[in-house]
Every structure is written in C-alpha cells, then in structure tokens.
Amino acid sequence: MVTTPMTFVATAATAAQLGAEIVFADVEDATANIDPDSVASAITPSTRVVAAVDYAGQPADLDALLPIAHGAGALLLEDAAHSIGSVSRSRPVGSIADLTTFSFFPTKNLTTAEGGAVVSTDPALLERVRRFKLHGLVRDRDLQRHPDEGGWHQEVHEFGLNYRLPDVLAALGSSQLTRLERFKARRAAIFDRYVRELSDLDGIRLPARVDGIDPTWHLFALRVLDGRRREVYTAMRERGILVQVNYIPVYWHPVFEDLGYRRGMCPVAERFYAEELSLPMFADLTDDDQSRVIDALREILS
C-alpha cells in the first residue's frame, strides 16, 4: 500500500496488521495532502492500494491519483475522516475514489460517538464491505456454495470482523446529518476569521486553499516558523488554549521504526510536522473564545 505519513497512525496500521508492506509517499507543501508525483514514483505493479488522506478537510487531488492507481492495477482509497461534506470540483467526497472511509469519532465534523462509514463507487466492492462488517457471513442462498444445507445455513467466503454500528449511535449520526451544513458554515466562518485576523502576523504561515475545493474544515493547520512551534504550543497550553499538533509522521512511531522505517524518508512531510500547530476549530467555538485564541497567539509571537 502507498499512503501518506501525514495522518493518524491507523491509516497505515490497519494495512500493516494484514501483512501489507507500507510505502510512504511525500506530501504537498501547501496542503499536506499526498503528492501525486511522489505516489507515481513509489507505486509498483505489486501495489494493491493507494490511500490518500484529506488533510484538515481539503480533499486530496483524486483526479490526479485515480489514473496513477488504476494504471498500476491498484484501488484508490480516500480516507475522508476529516472531510465529510467537502466538495471537490462540484463532486461530493465519497463519489470519486473507489472506496471512501469516514470517521465519526467525537472530534470529527459529524459524530456517532464512535464508528464510521464506508462508501464505494463499485457495487461489488461495496457488497464485500457489507459482508466484512458482519464477520463475512453470506446468507443469500443464490451466493452460497452449499445452499441446500438448511434454512439455518450461512457461509463465510472471506474472513470479516464485527463492525456493526449500534442503532442508537446510527440515530445520533442521522440527527447530526441534518446539521452538517450548519456545522460546515460555522467552521468556514471560524477559518475565515483566523485568516483575516492573523494575516498580518509575522512568524506564521496560514493554511492554503485549493481552487475548486469547497472544504468542510476540520483543522486550522497553522505553520509556526523559525523553530518556535514547541514554544508557542507550550505557551498556548499554559493559557488553557488546547492547541494540538496533527500529526507525528506515521513512520516515526516506534512500531514502524522497529520494522526498519527511518526518519528523512519524506522531507516535505517532516518539515510540515516541525511547523504545524492546530488552533481550536469546532462548530461550537464562540466568538469570544476565538478572540482569546487570536489575542494569545499575537501576544506570544509579538
């Protein structure tokens, strides 16, 4: 699998647990999304999956990645944990890649408290996903190898796991869906205010926007320059402002170090990590609290 190091470890860990070899491609400097040129250099005829991650809510360049993946006979997977509700060149996230995964963790743009969802443009692939989430069970007699065993009969053709979302959590997600556009609009207003009120501040680099992309912003990924990221992180936290760093390059984790991965593999991603600082960004962030974040950052960097 070819994937990005600028993501939560689960993107790569799930494939590694299945025995896949993970190849990390570098990211674009402007967006921290996986760089199609780097993917083209990393992909081989044995690659089965290219996994892109929509960092901070901006979809990766799927139009460039699709022919690269398909040219090698690989599937394009979009990790859209950050980007539900985002639109790429008039197409909603989930309608472009072969397979798209969403996270509904409490910190995400839409939540079911835990769990997630999978969508696909390929009906056959989606049917495999449906079976996988229920231990791989095949109950359709027309698809069974031994359909005359009895009315109780069920078969497993491919191993699966238990990924059923409880009804009460699904109900929460359905309720959240009715408010997704409002969440998106509020996050956009918070993002725009950060840009407007921090644009004259020295020592930082603001997030980039991509033409043709209408994101549901998940992170406000600021770049703190001149080696001051740790200083700013500590000072903000001391003021009770819960900034975060997203993410440690995946192959820096000891579990990947122990597999032979070494620092320096993806220099653009590592430079991005060294500077990145996520400011508070959630739909219920009040104007007063955002003012406190802005004022504190300006004070620290002045």
TrEMBL record:
Signal sequence interval, chain numbering: none
Keywords: Pyridoxal phosphate
Cofactor(s) needed by this chain: pyridoxal 5'-phosphate
Family designation: Belongs to the DegT/DnrJ/EryC1 family.
The name this protein goes by in its record: UDP-4-amino-4, 6-dideoxy-N-acetyl-beta-L-altrosami ne transaminase
